[in-house]
């Protein structure tokens, strides 16, 4: 009698144990392949980047802000990068302000990475420090502009933002304003401006900028900051070539003296 009761009870215990283990094993088996596919396919992941915008090497930002002489500042090898609004979108890692390497941004798990355009080699890890600072290797970058910059005509107007943007007074007390997006108010006949960024391949005699009624009709000028004053000078040709192209420029007469409003 005791044996008859014990055997059915033993069978029930074994069946219960088997039924208890099989769902767990089944869940694990179903999750493992999905996880593997997810990791393998991160190169195809199309997702938004919350840190999109213009990022500039912190060393350059500090040097230009301190000296206010962009033409005399040493430009870092990794100068700046525009982070696109989504992964997989092509962008450029700007090298020394006169060369660019085509790259894409990928999200690999919880990390973000910079890869070459064929997406064969990882170039840099992106370490996000805060909303306005990130690291690429040993270099720290500062965010100067946010959002989608793909439609901007001049997305790299870095010196405009660091030095020029703001309100000034001319010698007669009239207000002159330089915007962060290349517009000018208060100078007759001048509506657009752009401070030079790349001096490595130019024959600039000093820090230079361009101004004009439109971006297409701008002329070159020299400029110099002295405390709260901005002085803008005409350029004159010192040496003319045979084909009527100026071979050497020099600083000419002063065009404007502006005092920054506090």
From TrEMBL:
It comes from Terrimonas ginsenosidimutans. Residues 1-17 form the signal peptide. Keywords: Signal. This is DUF306 domain-containing protein. PROSITE patterns: PROKAR_LIPOPROTEIN. It comes from the Bacteria.
């Amino acid at each position: 009698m005791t044996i008859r009761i014990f055997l059915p009870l033993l069978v029930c215990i074994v069946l219960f144990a088997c039924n208890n283990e099989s769902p767990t094993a089944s869940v694990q088996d179903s999750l493992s392949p999905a996880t593997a596919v997810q990791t393998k396919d991160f190169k195809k992941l199309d997702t938004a980047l919350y840190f999109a915008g213009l990022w500039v090497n912190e060393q350059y930002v500090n040097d230009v802000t301190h000296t206010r002489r962009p033409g005399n500042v040493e430009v870092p090898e990794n100068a700046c990068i525009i982070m696109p609004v989504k992964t997989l979108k092509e962008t450029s890692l700007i090298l020394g302000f006169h060369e660019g390497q085509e790259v894409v941004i990928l999200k690999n798990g919880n990390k973000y990475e910079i890869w070459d355009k064929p997406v064969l080699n990882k170039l840099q890890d992106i370490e996000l420090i805060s909303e306005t600072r990130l690291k690429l290797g040993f270099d720290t970058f500062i965010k100067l502009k946010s959002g989608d910059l793909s439609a901007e005509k001049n997305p790299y107007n870095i010196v405009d933002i660091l030095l020029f943007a703001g309100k000034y007074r001319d010698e007669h007390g009239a207000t002159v304003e330089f915007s962060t997006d290349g517009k000018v108010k208060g100078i007759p006949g001048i509506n657009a401006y752009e401070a030079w960024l790349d001096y490595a391949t130019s024959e600039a005699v000093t820090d230079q900028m361009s101004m004009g009624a439109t971006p297409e009709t701008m002329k070159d000028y020299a400029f110099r900051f002295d405390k709260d004053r901005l002085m803008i000078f005409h350029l004159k040709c010192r040496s003319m070539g045979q084909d009527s192209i100026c071979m050497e420029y020099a600083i000419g007469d002063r065009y404007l003296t502006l005092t920054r409003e506090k």
